[in-house]
Design brief:
By secondary structure, this protein is of the alpha+beta class. The chain is 33% helix and 27% strand. The two termini are 48 Å apart. The model has no long low-confidence stretch (mean pLDDT 89).
Length: 292
Amino acid sequence: MKIGLYLKQAWQLLRQNRLYSCVYIIGTGLAIALTMILVLIYCIKLTPVYPEPYRDRTVVFEHIAITEPRSENFFSGNLSWKAVREHFYPLQSAEVVSAFGAYLEDGFIELPETGEMVPAQIKYTDTGFWRLFDFRFLTGKPFTEVEFQSGIRSAVLSESLARRIFESTDVAGRYFSLNFDEYRVSGVVKDVSFATPSTFAQLWIPFTANPDYMEEETQTLGLRGYLTVYILASSRSAVGKVKQEIDEVFRKINSTLDEYEIDQLGYPETYRTHVFRENQDKAVDWKEVLKN
């Protein structure tokens, strides 16, 4: 009975103060909606989602700076193939080390039936990429280590792109033309969302098939290039050990240099810290993050 009385009183108040009631209800609804949107955004950014189930034990190294103290010259950029194979792949504390293109690249695929040129977004990767991230293969499999080392033109396609090119997803072993070069389809995976920028693409290709990724700049000790490195620790408790080993690697490198000095720019950092980084050349300022 009391509940019914309260509801009647509330209804009378709403009718007596219609403008105020509307403003109050709409304002409350908007506040709840915005809060839910923020929670959803950060859930997508921080919690395990397809195809990134191991975010809680992933360490990121994206950028370095190389300085010449005497001349005050300063060079910054992503990592080179030389830096990856000499200093990251050998990490003893890592379960998986993966290097892949720091940015998506655009390409054009020629449709076999019509000859129409279709744009596609490419991510250049290594074989560790397929072990660090958990893609759902609809057909076929990732390109192999032999294909990667040989620089063979092999590709994994997204489901939607495979259907666009071949009108089917059962296309492992078939060939297509990308930027006027012939590629073999290694496998097809379920589409990846724009909300996971580390893994999103429409096709994934061994970066050894692209000569640009193999270049080594002598001006920057051969360490600056186009790659980002993600390292998977064996457990959450092992993340600190991975970071310590990487710090030790760069400490040893710096101890051998006379004219140069390498600045790690706050890397390595956990994936969950990396999400909040706004400047590649500057470590996360948590005071600014909280303020914003």
